[in-house]
Write a structure and sequence with these properties.
Helix content is 27%, strand content 34%. Strands 1-2-3-5-4 form a 5-stranded mixed sheet, with helices on one face. The N and C termini lie far apart (28 Å). A hairpin with a 4-residue loop joins strand 1 and strand 2. The radius of gyration is 13 Å and the shape is globular. It has 2 helices and 5 strands, in the order ββαβαββ. The protein has 89 residues and is of the alpha+beta class.
């Protein structure tokens, strides 16, 4: 699990990779859910973004389960975002 925050952007990028022996145990969902909870408590974050390979169905399911919306496809990657506050600068 990793995340990247660009100060002033209101956006956090999240990424995850789970070794095969640990698939289907809810680890990615729980981890990304914890990032969402943190972001909701932050006054500086309005959006979480993520991307995954277009054929990575398990990762797509994780993001959809957590209410991410597909925002585009580029270079074999699906781009997703979760917006939970209107951005005010």
């Amino acid at each position: 699990m990793c995340g990247e925050y660009a100060p002033g952007s209101g956006s956090v990028e999240v990424g995850f990779g789970i070794i095969p022996d640990m698939h289907n145990k809810g680890i990615a969902t729980e981890s990304v859910g914890a990032v969402i909870e943190w972001a909701l408590s932050s006054k500086k974050v309005q959006k979480i973004v993520a991307e995954c390979l277009i054929d990575n169905i398990p990762s797509i399911r994780v993001l959809e389960k957590l209410n991410f919306t597909r925002t585009g496809v580029a270079n074999g990657m699906i781009n997703c975002s979760l917006i939970f506050k209107p951005y005010c600068s």
